[in-house]
């Protein structure tokens, strides 16, 4: 209990520091403060709109999908199938990148390999389908297609590269952390 | 539209789950809520931080930084701005399109868009909680270098009309 309490306060240090910064900006530059508040209100709305259904889906996935099933599709040795599924889940996603981390954590808990987790994060960050449609419209077909064509192999190579920099114990530590976390 | 689909998916999943097993559904929602509540302070922090950042770094400032710059200096600057900021896609792409029309180089725009999407300096506090410092650092650094490569390739391959 004691440990939990301490953690409870510690968790709010980061937003508190930023909030204090808002106080400073309020005193120094009121127009900048107004602009910051406007963006923040927008960001809060976005988060409160998009994040709750993601967490509902995660909670249900945690309860319903057996570890063996997910390990089969995304675990070590899932090969091309695993890469494909990781790309698919990441690209079909909605929401900012910070929403991807809890999803990745559940997938790790359920037995997805770390390489596939990195592919999933790469896909969520840069090959999301709704974003791709936006990009097509705003920057044109050659731009969007070239970027996609470079990104798909790039994400796979980066995932391999990052995993190769990690020791086996480090990856195991991350899985232990994912297991201990609520997600 | 994607938000609507997300809600639809969550709703359908909830209904199926509820009919199959009420207790498991309850447990799932409880787990989801707990996880949400746990990371909420970090989410708030990130959003507050983005607010400050964008108050000083609006479209005009970004445009000035990469607008008429050329060469590697502009590309580097564009990629750094992209790495640090967090702008939703439906604002970022029209902005990029506008910057392009106003004379920004294609390579710079590609560097900006690419690092904006792949690199998240602002979201590091959230990423570290789930993945630790080392993975977060490696992922962001490699994504940053990669986004420079993407910019270079787009600059070579795509022709401005």
Structure characterization notes:
- The complex is a heterodimer of chains A (183) and B (161).
- With 183 residues, chain A is mainly alpha-helical.
- Chain A folds into two domains: 1-52; 65-180, no CATH class.
- Chain A contains ten helices and no strands.
- Chain A has helices at residues 2-10, 13-28, 30-64, 67-74, 79-92, 100-109, 114-126, 129-139, 141-164, 168-180.
- The longest helix of chain A has 35 residues, at 30-64.
- The two termini of chain A are 20 Å apart.
- Chain B is mainly alpha-helical.
- Chain B folds into two domains: 1-40; 57-157, no CATH class.
- Chain B is built from seven helices and no strands.
- Chain B has helices spanning 2-20, 22-56, 59-66, 71-84, 89-101, 106-118, 124-157.
- The longest helix of chain B is centred in the first third of the chain and has 35 residues, at 22-56.
- Chain B starts with a helix and ends with a helix.
- The mean pLDDT of chain B is 89.
- At the A-B interface, helix 2, helix 3, helix 6, helix 7 and helix 8 of A face helix 1, helix 2, helix 5, helix 6 and helix 7 of B.
Compute the number of structural domains of chain B: 2
Question: Gyration radius of chain B, to the nearest Å?
Answer: 20 Å
- Specify the number of helices of chain B: 7
Give the mean pLDDT of chain B.
89
Please report the number of helical segments of chain A: 10
Q: What characteristics describe this protein?
A:
heterodimer; A: 183 residues; mainly alpha; globular; disordered N terminus; B: 161 residues; 2 domains; 7 helices; elongated
Layout of strands and helices, then pairs:
The complex is a heterodimer of chains A (183) and B (161).
Chain A: H1 2-10, H2 13-28, H3 30-64, H4 67-74, H5 79-92, H6 100-109, H7 114-126, H8 129-139, H9 141-164, H10 168-180
Helix pairs in contact in A: 2-3, 5-7, 6-7, 6-10, 7-9, 8-9
Chain B: H1 2-20, H2 22-56, H3 59-66, H4 71-84, H5 89-101, H6 106-118, H7 124-157
Helix pairs in contact in B: 1-2, 4-6, 4-7, 5-6, 6-7
